[in-house]
């Protein structure tokens, strides 16, 4: 979120989590998200670190997607209990347009809302010069809260009001 009074900067290339919001699967199940690029131009490499809440997700793994040309050199970044990362570079070729840079998979530890962040995002051209990029993280949502239903009155039970209590329909 951009602080009040500060304008955010948007660049032509965007790296984002897809889907941006997803309902959490059950505990013990896997959750897979894509790290996508849109509007890429002359992209020869990338680096990205995915951050997550370790009380909600665990056992993170990350794999190169199909955006960069075949034969790209791929290297994992050091992982922690709260992050996993990857870097990749193509030699002698570039990619343009939209696609999947990487795929990240988690095991759901607890079904609850949490944030998936993207940090240390670098997109580079064939000369290894950084390309400006807009970054958008994602969210895992917990179960929807259910509104309690008013119980039905058993047959033969009369609803009594306190004196002076008024209902919208004018009854006392």
From TrEMBL:
GO terms for biological process: polysaccharide catabolic process. One of its GO terms (molecular function) is carbohydrate binding. It comes from the Eukaryota. InterPro entries: CBM2/CBM3_carb-bd_dom_sf, Cohesin_dom. Residues 19-129 form the Cohesin domain. This is Cohesin domain-containing protein. It comes from Geodia barretti. The lineage of its organism: Eukaryota, Metazoa, Porifera, Demospongiae, Heteroscleromorpha.
């Amino acid at each position: 979120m951009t602080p009040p009074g500060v304008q955010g900067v948007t660049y032509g290339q965007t790296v984002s989590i897809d889907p941006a919001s997803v309902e959490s699967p059950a505990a013990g199940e896997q959750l897979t998200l894509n790290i996508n690029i849109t509007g890429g131009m002359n992209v020869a490499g990338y680096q990205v670190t995915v951050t997550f809440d370790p009380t909600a997700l665990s056992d993170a793994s990350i794999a190169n997607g199909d955006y960069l040309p075949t034969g790209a050199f791929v290297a994992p970044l050091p992982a922690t209990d709260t992050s996993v990362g990857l870097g990749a570079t193509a030699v002698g070729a570039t990619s343009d347009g939209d696609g999947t840079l990487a795929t990240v998979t988690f095991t759901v530890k607890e079904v609850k809302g949490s944030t998936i962040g993207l940090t240390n995002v670098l997109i580079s051209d064939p000369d290894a010069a950084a390309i400006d990029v807009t970054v958008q993280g994602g969210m895992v949502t917990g179960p929807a809260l259910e509104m309690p239903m008013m119980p039905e009155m058993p047959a033969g039970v009369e609803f009594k009001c306190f004196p002076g209590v008024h209902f919208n329909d004018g009854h006392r």
